[in-house]
Specification:
Elements: E1 3-4, E2 8-12, E3 23-28, E4 35-36, E5 44-47, E6 53-56, E7 62-63, E8 68-73, E9 80-84, E10 90-95, H1 100-108, H2 110-114, E11 119-121, E12 123-125, H3 131-142, E13 155-157, E14 159-162, E15 182-183, E16 189-192, H4 207-222, E17 227-230, E18 243-248, E19 252-253, E20 259-262, H5 267-273, E21 277-282, E22 285-289, H6 295-306, E23 316-318, H7 329-335, E24 339-342, H8 358-366, E25 373-376, E26 382-389, E27 392-394, E28 402-404, E29 411-418, E30 421-426, E31 430-436, E32 443-449, E33 461-462
Parallel strand pairs: 10-12, 11-13, 12-14, 14-17, 22-23, 23-24, 24-25
Antiparallel strand pairs: 1-7, 2-3, 4-5, 5-6, 8-9, 8-30, 9-10, 15-16, 16-20, 18-21, 19-20, 21-22, 26-29, 27-28, 30-31, 31-32, 32-33
Helix pairs in contact: 1-3, 3-4, 6-7
Length: 463
């Protein structure tokens, strides 16, 4: 299939393009086209992969090969990132906690599901075991049983990579929350790695990891050669045409010879500090995906960068830990990004983290290269207010009939009309960053000429 080689292309329902005609959709650089017809007066007919047809400007430019696509999906308080390589390989990094990622992928792959096919990713990386990064994968796996077409997707993956820490129940003493620690040669403690969280008995897992264990079992049924293993510094995620290498966590060896991760003083500090941080390189384009990295570990990575042990310089940064104040400015200075993305959204009182912090927004911009583009994922989503509504109850129970629960009282309801997604596209020489508005065709977009920007300083050209 051909690919769009213009940065943005409007697709109209009729040949009346730009003359009061109705807009069908807007395509982005690198989007696929099922068919492109011959140029004619008034427009050029095109067919989209989902079967819809429309018309574009006769001057449409197309290319025969794909480009790198990175989508940062708004999942509220949490992370979710989808990477599609130029040859079509797909990587999911984290899945949020709620159903928003499952809904987004179901919509994007509706024709695949309708054809009775499985949506197969090449790898899933769960950067660490907090619920706002792993629980959404359970919803994604369970979406295969949805009865409504717009919510259904049969998801599978060839590999599931994680940081090697499996959370035990909350009743477990803090020092043993990831299993018994072992002594390190310097007197510290090391937590031995868990190769496959699903190998542990339910009694040794907290609720979210028990759910994840069930999902891993289902993923194995859908792809019998599923690989499950930890990922650490220096290891690659093999997607062929792009380089993806682990920057964090760094393995240590206990006095007993077990490979593991340093105990960092508390469960939260340990699981976040050992988040999987990835660096992606394609041509001149460099991405650093910071997971929930803490100040302590970020400072160490900055020191390692200065010593030449790792290279964290990047054009695009997924800012660590949703814009939390526990962030390393030393590492921000070493990354020196042009584009920074903060994945955050305090959607209810249970997730009232006040992310992103104002001081972090300032720090991110202060250490960035010009023009210092800073995006927050939850600002990309749009809702529609539906008016007053009532909770629904099944009456009679088990009947499948739902009626308003008037006794419970009414509330103001809203409906998500557009998923919050920040799109980053690159051919290795240029970088397009786009977010869509609520009205058809509305967008905010920037094009960076990477060949005109020094890798660690200077101004990236915006067109």
């Amino acid at each position: 299939m051909p690919f769009v080689d213009d940065h943005l292309v409007r697709v109209w329902k009729t040949r009346d393009i730009g003359r009061g005609g109705e807009l069908l959709t807007t395509l982005c650089w690198g989007d696929e086209l099922a068919h492109v017809g011959a140029s004619r007066a008034g427009g050029r007919p095109v067919t989209l992969p989902d079967g819809r047809t429309g018309y574009v400007d006769a001057a449409l430019r197309k290319r025969s090969n794909g480009i790198l696509q990175v989508a940062f999906v708004d999942v509220g308080q949490g992370d979710a990132c989808i990477i599609t390589t130029p040859t079509g390989k797909r990587l999911l990094i984290d899945a949020g906690e709620n159903q928003q990622l499952a809904r987004y992928l179901a919509a994007r792959n509706r024709s695949v599901t309708a054809a009775g096919k499985t949506t197969l990713f090449d790898a899933v990386v769960l950067t660490h075991g907090d619920a706002d990064h792993i629980a959404g994968l359970v919803h994604l796996v369970d979406a295969a049983t949805e009865t409504r077409a717009e919510k259904k997707i049969v998801f599978a993956t060839r590999a599931l990579l994680h940081n090697g820490l499996a959370k035990r129940p909350a009743s477990t003493p803090s020092s043993a929350r990831f299993g018994p620690t072992e002594s390190a040669s310097d007197g510290g403690r090391v937590v031995p790695l868990v190769e496959d969280p699903s190998s542990l008995p339910d009694s040794e897992l907290n609720r979210h990891f028990r759910d994840l264990k069930r999902s891993i079992g289902e993923l194995r049924r859908r792809h019998t050669k599923l690989e499950v293993r930890p990922l650490s510094r220096g290891e690659n995620v093999n997607l062929g045409d792009i380089s993806i290498v682990g920057i964090n966590p760094t393995l240590e060896v206990s006095t007993k010879g077990a490979a593991g991760l340093r105990w960092l003083g508390s469960p939260a500090a340990t699981v976040n500090g050992h988040s999987i941080v990835l660096k992606l390189v394609y041509g001149r384009a460099r991405f650093l995906l910071g997971a929930d990295l803490t100040r302590r570990t970020g400072d160490q990575i900055a020191a390692d960068h200065a010593a030449g042990m790792v290279d964290v310089g990047a054009d695009v940064l997924k800012v660590p830990h949703h814009g939390s104040s526990d962030i390393s400015e030393a590492m921000l200075a070493k990354v020196a990004p042009v584009v920074s993305i903060i994945s955050a959204g305090d959607e209810d009182a249970r997730r009232d983290h006040l992310h992103p912090r104002a001081t972090v927004l300032g720090a991110v911009a202060r250490h960035a290269r010009e023009p210092a583009l800073v995006f927050v994922t939850n600002l990309n989503a749009f809702d529609r207010w539906r008016g007053r509504a009532f909770p629904a109850i099944e009456s009679p129970r088990g009947s499948g009939t739902w009626v308003p629960d008037v006794a419970a009282g009414s509330f103001y309801a809203r409906e998500r009309t557009q998923a919050g997604v920040l799109h980053v596209r690159t051919d290795g020489e240029h970088l397009l960053v786009t977010r869509w508005g609520a009205s058809p065709g509305a967008h905010e977009s920037y094009v960076l000429d990477l060949k005109d920007a020094a890798p660690t300083a200077g101004r990236a050209v915006v067109r």
